[in-house]
Amino acid sequence: MNPVVVIPSYWAQGEKPGALGERGVYDYTTRIDRPLPELETCLSSLEQVRGVLRVIVLVVAPPSCEESARARVNSICRAHADLNPLVIGAQEASHVEHAVARMAHHIAGETVSLRGYGAIRNMGLAVAAVLGHDVVVFLDDDEVVLDSDFLIKAVWGLGSLTRQNLQILAKSGFFVDENDSPYAEPTKEWSEKYWSKATEFNKVMERAQSASTRITRSNHLCGGCCSLHAAAFTRVPFDPYITRGEDLDYVLNLRAHGLDVWFDREWFVRAQTPEEPAPVPSTFMQDVYRWLYEYRKLDAMNARRDLRTITPESLMPYPAPWLCSDVRKRVFQTALRRLIAGPDRLAYLSILTKGRYEADKFAKLASSRYLSFAMVWPSIASALWEDRFLQNAILTTGEVSGPLSAEMRAARQLRDELADTGSLPVVGEDL
Hints:
By secondary structure, the protein is of the alpha/beta class. It has helices at residues 38-46, 66-78, 90-103, 117-130, 150-155, 198-209, 230-233, 246-256, 280-302, 327-341, 345-366, 369-384, 388-398, 406-421, and strands at 3-12, 30-31, 55-60, 85-88, 135-139, 143-144, 170-176, 215-218, 225-229, 261-271. Strands 1, 2, 3, 4, 5, 6, 7, 8, 9 and 10 form a 10-stranded mixed sheet that branches. Helix 2 (66-78) links the parallel strand 3 and strand 4 (85-88). Helix 9 (280-302) packs parallel to helix 11. The longest helix has 23 residues, at 280-302.
């Protein structure tokens, strides 16, 4: 196997919160002037890991500080040259975006880009395909690797068959907190009665941890610790239209296409709690969009005869309760309770009177968009696979360490030719 580690890294200039419902508001971002960024700690932990062939860092930053974020990431990656880091910023991403746009010009929105959780994941898959990596291992930059066999465990079982003759093509690990616990901390706050998922999540985790076998079928995917075989990620993309929770959503996407996610109870990382998480009203509004959209999308997928039907029973104990019409009641009750309890009362009043209706309208209109994109994704992945023009264009600016090889010098010459034509030839063979 030829695995690659892909790390999305989120950066910002300051602490200005995003607007309610705005795309590009993430759970946390790293300030460019932070003395010890999470990415530095993450890459340092990867230094001990055996078999690292390449690490791809996706630089996610608003246009106002894009260059500063790129320079900071370049500086961090140069200190970890042994990991063979490849930085994908706006310039490298534009090559991939243009290639995808020519093949999916009729698809709405940013499907493969450095903005929006699902589109960012797809950018990682696309770059991996261009470079010919048959396994993608996603890792978040606010996590640290604890085991030198991290990659060995990541690919363990991938491509093999279970006793039921089911192929393992997507696998999830999990993360532990500072106390080495994989379980979420339940909340007793009155305002969170209808919104906390800790109890349901812990039931899923407890079942997986106490199973008689190391690998079990899963309703959960940890986006910061998962490995995807090319036979899965070239067939099924992440959903670029979902505001957050793209990893859990990917479980549904795979299952609808006849594939499953498998949980490996011996593969984990440690999560570092970010010091500056995103403002609560913004993430709540994203969750409102997310769950209303997820509910509508599941109905749209189950209405298709060419996709496998996903029953609520198969998603118990989580996330089934969040994928039915009752989720609208959860949104109303939680927003009302947070409005009463405070703080940020004006934000929750806006959600109650306007935001939740806009989210439901979006969910109805966009519920089938992903299905249109998913239909053309296999052709996109096939065309991107080991495309030598895209490889050269990406490697020309993306590599941040080591002397220039003959291939790199040739890539720099080719870059001018590509600039003249204004487009990249699409070359590739079916996988």
